[in-house]
Amino acid sequence: MGLSHLEAGQVLMMLIGSLLLYLGIRRGFEPLLLLPIGFGAILVNIPQAELMEEGGVLRFFYDTGILTEVFPILIFIGIGAMTDFQPLLENPKIILLGAAGQFGIFLTLLLALALGFDKLEAVAVAIIGACDGPTAIYVSSKYAPHLLGAVSVAAYSYMSLVPLIQPPIMRLLTTEREKKIVMGIEKRPVSKTTKILFPVVVTIAASLIAPLGTPLIGMVMLGNLMRESGVVERLKNASENEITNIVTLLLGLSIGATMEAAKFLRVETLMVLGLGFIAISLDTVMGVLFGKLMCFLTGGRINPLIGAAGISAFPMSARVVQVEGQRYNKKNYLLMHALSANASGQIGSIVAAGIMLSVLKGMGIV
């Protein structure tokens, strides 16, 4: 009987899995992933079930989709197919906020190295700050698979908690006057040709800057090209619906399968969760501070709050900015500007990961 082999650590992990189920079902925090992750964590900690042993069903999903990097890559195609970059193309200077929103990643990288993580582990932990689950999964599964469970849970948990994490930082770093700045809509005509060329140009440019990020940026932009071309509607629909839904389910189960008590219940896991929180907070701080700089340089035409959307939590962070803007000025409609920063943050997070990995390759570590 499995009951006679049940250990305290396994019971605790089942409770953690149940907590993830609660957050997904009752609180609505990223249910598409927290539900399969939580259930996978329960399954893998049932004594003598051997689901992660050779030939086990969860082991099959993990080996087939995670170790080969197929699952996160397919998710990226779906993300690209669902992302509209038009707001960014209408106001291209906002892309700077997407770049600024990644500085917290590099600051957390240094902190992780100082705490004793090796270089590959530090990159996997720091990328949590991008608030981009697929990127975090891709990097950790490829270069620090023993941290996959902790990194994935941290990335998706904190992404769902963006409405709680970001507002206090935004309020602390901005003045009353800055919060009330009304930004006009800068509508620039964006041709269909421009929208088709954008994913091609971004893929080439980003890949030349950070070659190891090519699989990530390439798949996102492939999905976006299918969306904007208008000639492969069936492929676009399959990418953002059937393929993404199936892969999300299997990806969540595979992540949950890495949360075995013996591997998950370690001080290292708590450190990963703590550093992930620091990374997201620092990214928000850097985005808002750069927004304040843009506000100053433009003579007060940029509301610094939109800098918080420079992370990759799309579109949650943009909605947070809209809510905060209207909290101080009912005439303030920041959503389109925040969506621009949010979309550039998606690109920025992938480029940041690619840059870090490319540097490690240059050092002979990857």
Please outline what is shown here.
The chain has 366 residues and is mainly alpha-helical.
List the helices and strands and how they pair.
Layout: H1 8-25, H2 31-44, H3 57-66, H4 70-82, H5 86-90, H6 95-100, H7 103-114, H8 119-126, H9 133-143, H10 148-160, H11 162-173, H12 176-179, H13 192-209, H14 214-229, H15 233-257, H16 261-264, H17 267-297, H18 316-328, H19 335-362
Helix pairs in contact: 1-2, 2-15, 3-15, 4-9, 4-14, 4-15, 7-8, 7-17, 8-9, 9-10, 10-17, 11-17, 11-18, 13-14, 18-19
Salient structural properties:
366 residues, single chain, mainly alpha, globular
Could you explain how this protein is built, in words?
By secondary structure, the protein is mainly α. The protein has one domain (68-362). 71% of the residues lie in helices and 0% in strands. It has 19 helices and no strands. α3 crosses α15 (233-257) and α13 runs antiparallel to α14 (214-229). It is globular and about 70 Å long. 52% of the residues are buried. The mean pLDDT is 89.
